[in-house]
Amino acid sequence: MREILLNDLLSLSEQDLNRTKIKFNHYNGETDPLQEFLLNPEIVNNQWLFWRKNRRNFSTGQIAICLVRMTGDTWLLTTIKEVTSELGIQKGINYAGVEKDEYKKYFGRVVVKYKKTDKVGCRNYHTVGKELIVQQILPNVYNGEEFPGYDNVVLSYKQLDIINRMGKRDWIAALESQKAVYLITDIKTGKLYVGSATAKYGMLLSRWRNYLKDGHGGNKLLKELVNEKGFNYVKENFQYSILENYNSIVDDSVIVMRESHWKNILHSKSVGYNSN
Q1: From CA 92, how far away is CA 88, in angstroms rounded?
Q2: I need a labelling partner for 36 at 20 to 30 A (CA). Which of 1, 51, 90, 166 fits?
């Protein structure tokens, strides 16, 4: 059976294909456009799509298709616009455009497989069209990864922040009533912090929300780190995961005991961020 190509869905005419370009957007070393899309799709559909860095990507009258990398070779279709004008900006948002209404039902729902092997951000449709394979059509607009189970939780600060700000129901329900021993990893240095979430100091969601507020959650060495390197250091380099989780009826003393166990196992007091 032949694979379904993106244009099998879009049905762009040959004339339209000749004036269509694809903009591939992915992590640029500072910002992940997929996370931007979750918080504000228009940032991706305007700024990321129509950003110019020296070279021209589009010209007036062309059709611009915006793809955002999800993982590896999978990309999310976020918008399709017709370019209405160039703004004469050498570095910045250089184009204006209007969305193609006939394709709106696909925005944020079509997942495309494409193996990108070069650094070119914008390509003519004819050069890549036969490689743009429809992998999935989501039932609703993409709103982030589903809760993967406690054993598989690994979140960057930005991912945790998005889950909290969006109020992702599956994540909130899973975390708000759980006691846990959790791990914070500084991915830049490898240093670890082991913490516990109990009824006394707030369940797991409440505890992690404290870190979202200030980066340190009141912990001595983490507070010193934030004071020295700034809150942005935490936002760029901290990762949150669960070592053990317990339901709310388990006594707090059990969680505290297991927290001590993990501190010893991981040496988070001698070479990490635990002060006691």
Answers
A1: 10
A2: 90
d(CA 254, CA 266): 18
Residues 122 and 213 both lie in one domain: no
pLDDT band at 1 (very low <50, low <70, confident <90, very high): low
273, 191 Cβ separation under 8 angstroms: yes
Q: Helix, strand, or coil here: 65?
A: strand
Q: How far apart are CA 236 and CA 231, in angstroms?
A: 9
Q: Are residues 15 and 101 in the same domain?
A: yes
CATH code for the domain of 165: 3.40.1440.10
DSSP-assigned beta bridge partners for residue 75: 69, 112
pTM for the structure as a whole = 0.80
- The whole-number pLDDT of residue 225 equals 97
Q: What is the DSSP string of 215-245?
A: SSTT-HHHHHHHHHH-HHHHHHHEEEEEEEE
User: What's the confidence (pLDDT) of residue 31?
Assistant: 87
Mean pLDDT computed over 142-171: 93
Identity of the amino acid at 171 = W
Residue percentage of the chain with pLDDT more than 70: 100
- Range(s) of the domain holding residue 28: 6-137
